[in-house]
Write a structure and sequence with these properties.
Blueprint (H helix, E strand, L loop, with lengths): L1 H7 L6 H18 L5 E6 L5 H16 L2 E4 L13 H12 L2 E6 L6 H8 L8 E5 L13 H12 L6 H17 L6 H14 L8 H9 L1
Parallel strand pairs: 1-2, 1-3, 3-4
Helix pairs in contact: 1-4, 2-4, 6-7, 6-8
């Protein structure tokens, strides 16, 4: 109840609301108190993003035998007066072993979720996976994946002319190869061409998002 009172900001709960919250806790929290490792998965429930949440959920179940869950699948509190999200999120985040954020775009419900987990008490057990995010410095060009992410950002920048795009990507690949990364221009361009055909532009994030990603 201390967690609940913190979530509702000091509002005095009515008896019916207390019963509903208690029923939610009795139904959902025992899974988090079991011996299975629990993973609270955050992200967008919209299509196609929900597919990646399901993929993460399936992999954690298959590989680790864990209990990975998405809040949207759980019993929802029927309270109309209180902020249901804050109560459910606080209880689930408090008692989960790990919090996993799958971030793929700038808008939507995942933005406030990111703001919830970047400070104590949740920060130490939270892990974030932004789509197409690359903090582009020489120190961070540590893998083929980072190089490809950075190249996608360059390729889909509208302000750049085609020859500028090619020049910047060539320079990026050269820097990566000089750093010992096993990547070729063909590999990078194959990914770019596939994404261009699908019309699948890189995810765009606000300045606030990027700073929080760097914090993690």
């Amino acid at each position: 109840m201390a967690v609940v009172h913190e979530a509702v900001g000091g509002i005095e709960l009515e008896p019916a609301e207390k019963r509903e919250i208690w029923q939610f806790a009795q139904h959902e929290l025992p899974y988090l108190w079991s011996q299975r490792t629990s993973y609270f998965i955050l992200g967008s429930y919209r299509d196609p993003y929900i597919r990646r949440l399901r993929a993460v959920q399936n992999e954690l179940t298959k590989q680790l035998g864990a209990y990975p869950f998405i809040m949207g699948d759980l019993l929802e509190l029927p309270t109309e007066r209180l902020n249901t999200f804050d109560i459910m999120f606080s209880l689930l985040a408090t008692y989960s072993d790990y919090i996993v954020g799958v971030f793929e775009k700038e808008g939507g419900g995942e933005a406030p979720e990111l703001g919830e987990i970047d400070d104590p008490p949740y920060f130490d057990k939270s892990y974030v996976f932004p789509r197409d995010y690359a903090w582009v410095t020489d120190a961070n060009l540590t893998s083929k994946h980072h190089v490809t992410q950075a190249a996608l950002e360059i390729a889909f920048t509208d302000e750049l002319k085609q020859d500028e795009v090619h020049s910047k990507i060539d320079a990026l690949v050269d820097r990566a190869q000089e750093s010992g990364i096993d990547v070729t221009e063909k590999e990078v361009w194959d990914v770019i061409d596939d994404r261009a055909v699908e019309g699948d532009e890189p995810a765009k994030y606000s300045w606030v998002h990027l700073n929080k990603f760097r914090k993690f």
